């Protein structure tokens, strides 16, 4: 039986923005709401903030020039200056370059008069045809298997990762050493898909893929490091609009240091195509 999920805060709501009046003709200003369901612990999920900022930047760019309507945010470089509270947030967008192949825009996520996330976006055209070559072969099934750990509100992960209340999220048990009270390599795999209404809209699926590129738990968790791992900087790539269905997220690290660790996340859709990627530098929590 499919578990019923909350529908009051679908991902499309995160990207549903209202334009604000401004006297600065060079800056687009918007207001939106990020529901408490899009949090990990008490903190708004970083990938959600990047995707919401991308929605603001896309709207300002395409409304300023209708000929750019087919462009998408193919790269996002985000600096996290603070952690906003769930609720109302504002966005300020400025265009730095407009071109036929590449456009550049900067977006600030603002709350309480403070810029808390600053993202530099590169806009371009997404891949739409078959992949010419790929080195992303994986033994991860396209859908969660019977051993997968679902993020329900009554599970340990579901109590922390509230995204499981408004999207379907399952952790691959084979890579979740911490869930068995063991230690292992700093890696994680999971499956995620949006609610049915969001899944029908290609624009929302693309934004959801950007969000999913930051969905993995911090991989040092398999080394016994539990707790909030603040992201210092993250770069996200959007490659194509995913096919409807489950997304696979594969997270790995090259090095976990004394204070910092890196984490790469690869997002693959149900057809096997790479739809999004991210690389971040984050601060390691203290060992428990």
Automatic annotation (TrEMBL):
Domain annotation Acyl-CoA thioesterase-like C-terminal: ranges: 157-284
UniProt keyword terms in alphabetical order: Kinase, Transferase
Domain of life: Bacteria
GO molecular function: kinase activity
Pfam family of the protein (one): 4HBT_3C
Domain Acyl-CoA thioesterase-like N-terminal HotDog residue range list: 35-124
Protein name: Diacylglycerol kinase
């Amino acid at each position: 039986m499919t578990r019923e999920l909350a529908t009051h805060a679908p991902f499309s709501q995160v990207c549903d923005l209202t334009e604000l009046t401004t006297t600065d003709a060079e800056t687009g200003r918007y207001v939106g709401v990020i529901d408490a369901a899009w949090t990990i612990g008490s903190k708004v999920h970083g990938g959600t903030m990047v995707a919401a900022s991308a929605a603001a930047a896309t709207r300002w760019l395409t409304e300023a020039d209708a000929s750019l309507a087919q462009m998408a945010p193919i790269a996002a470089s985000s600096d996290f200056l603070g952690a906003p509270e769930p609720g109302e947030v504002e966005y300020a967008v400025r265009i730095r370059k407009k071109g036929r192949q590449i456009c550049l825009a900067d977006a600030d996520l603002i709350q309480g008069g403070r810029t808390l996330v600053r993202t530099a976006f590169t806009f371009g055209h997404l891949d739409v045809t078959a992949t010419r070559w790929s080195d992303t072969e994986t033994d991860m099934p396209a859908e969660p298997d019977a051993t997968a750990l679902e993020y329900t509100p009554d599970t340990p992960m579901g109590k922390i990762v509230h995204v499981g209340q408004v999207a379907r999220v399952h952790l691959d048990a084979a890579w979740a050493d911490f869930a068995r009270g063991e230690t292992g390599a700093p890696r994680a795999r999971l499956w995620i898909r949006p609610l049915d209404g969001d899944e029908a809209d290609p624009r929302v699926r693309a934004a959801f893929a950007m969000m999913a590129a930051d969905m993995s738990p911090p991989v040092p968790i398999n080394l016994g490091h539990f707790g909030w791992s603040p992201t210092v900087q993250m770069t996200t790539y959007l490659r194509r609009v995913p096919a409807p269905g489950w997304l696979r997220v594969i997270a790995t690290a090259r090095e976990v240091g004394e204070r910092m660790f890196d984490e790469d996340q690869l997002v693959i859709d149900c057809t096997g195509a790479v739809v999004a990627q991210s690389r971040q530098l984050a601060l390691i929590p203290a060992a428990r």
